[in-house]
């Protein structure tokens, strides 16, 4: 008897050639960002909590590792707001509810967002040991995750919380089969429903986000926080050569709406942030919802590959 394999799970199998680091090379983003709870919200982080998910295929049975680059609050990479005084907590969850809990997928983390079974946790302050260096959680048993077959396997959740202080913690994440190096896990990936990142300071640079558009979506809303009018946002897809966003103010957010074409279903979009002027230390928060208000996941390794516009040749008689 032939089994029906979910489209997303099938597409995930094509991503095994790439190492799983967030931000990835394809995204061209310098760092992820989490500010501590006393930070001014106009600095780019709207809620001081970021949540990331790690996907492990069901066939992976060997232990793996989750690595954090520059986890401390201090040194040359992090954003100093008048003297480093901050702490950031990284907590890894698996088990039932790690991803399936509705609170875990909210863009405003409230309620039971830290659902699941706590596997590892560590709080970092201004410790030079971890500056410009990697810290590793693991070894981790893949079976300790939450099985979500429609997402390609077992899911683990990393909750990053800004605690005391007001500085910005800049960091990267890695899903690895090695404790001491970044070695890909075949078929693995990292995703988030709300992306808080640092853009490059230099003008004419380009950052990419890759949300996955599932079946049944007819439109999406791109929600951007604290963009500082540094440039423009453009969407590339298999059906769009360049759909520019017209951002409309909505409280502290800017929102644009985009129609989804049938060809774009079960593919990734390339949401491009094009810097038109030099803005230093600009941190941006982004989430995307469908017509029902449900959030779309951003994948470090875009599902199905980086989308390329497919030219349509019209034949006239």
Secondary structure: elements and pairs:
Blueprint: H1 7-12, E1 20-22, E2 31-35, E3 49-56, E4 64-69, E5 88-94, E6 117-124, E7 134-140, E8 146-148, E9 153-162, E10 168-176, E11 189-192, E12 195-198, E13 206-209, E14 212-213, E15 219-225, E16 231-236, E17 243-244, E18 248-250, E19 253-259, E20 267-268, E21 270-275, E22 283-290, E23 298-299
Antiparallel strand pairs: 1-10, 2-10, 2-12, 3-9, 3-11, 4-7, 4-10, 5-6, 5-9, 8-9, 11-23, 12-22, 13-21, 14-20, 15-19, 15-22, 16-17, 16-21, 18-19
Concise synopsis of the structure shown:
The protein is mostly beta strands. Helices cover 2% and strands 39% of the residues. The strands form 4 sheets. Strands 1, 2, 4, 7, 10, 12, 15, 18, 19 and 22 form a 10-stranded antiparallel β-sheet that branches. Strands 3, 5, 6, 8, 9, 11 and 23 form a 7-stranded antiparallel β-sheet that branches. The protein has a 4-stranded antiparallel β-sheet with strand order 13-21-16-17, with no helix packed on it.
């Amino acid at each position: 008897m032939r089994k029906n394999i979910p489209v997303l799970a099938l597409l995930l199998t094509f991503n095994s050639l790439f190492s799983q680091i967030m931000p990835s090379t394809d995204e061209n983003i310098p760092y992820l960002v989490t500010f501590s709870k006393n930070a001014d919200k106009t600095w780019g982080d709207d809620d001081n909590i970021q949540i990331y998910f790690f996907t492990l295929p069901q066939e992976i049975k060997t232990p793996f590792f989750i690595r954090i680059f520059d986890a401390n609050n201090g040194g040359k990479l992090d954003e100093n707001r008048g003297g480093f005084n901050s702490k950031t907590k990284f907590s890894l969850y698996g088990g039932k509810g790690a991803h399936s809990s509705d609170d875990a997928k909210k863009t405003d983390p409230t309620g039971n967002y830290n659902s699941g079974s706590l596997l590892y946790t560590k709080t970092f302050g201004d410790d030079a040991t971890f500056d410009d260096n990697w810290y590793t959680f693991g070894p981790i048993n893949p079976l300790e995750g939450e099985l979500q077959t429609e997402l390609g396997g077992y899911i683990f959740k990393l909750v990053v919380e800004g605690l005391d202080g007001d500085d910005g913690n800049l960091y990267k994440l890695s899903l690895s089969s090695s404790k001491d190096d970044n070695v890909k896990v075949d078929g693995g990936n990292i995703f988030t429903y709300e992306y808080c990142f640092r853009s490059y300071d230099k003008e004419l640079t380009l950052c990419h986000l890759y949300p996955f558009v599932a079946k049944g979506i007819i439109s999406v809303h791109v929600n951007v926080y604290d963009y500082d009018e540094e440039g423009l946002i453009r969407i590339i897809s298999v059906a769009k050569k360049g759909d520019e966003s017209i951002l409309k103010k909505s409280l502290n957010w800017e929102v644009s709406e985009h129609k989804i074409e049938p060809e774009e279903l079960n593919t990734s979009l390339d949401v491009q942030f094009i810097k038109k002027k030099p803005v230093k230390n600009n941190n941006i928060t982004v989430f995307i919802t469908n017509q029902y208000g449900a959030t779309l996941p951003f994948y470090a390794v875009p599902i199905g590959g980086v989308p390329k516009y497919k030219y349509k040749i019209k034949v006239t008689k």
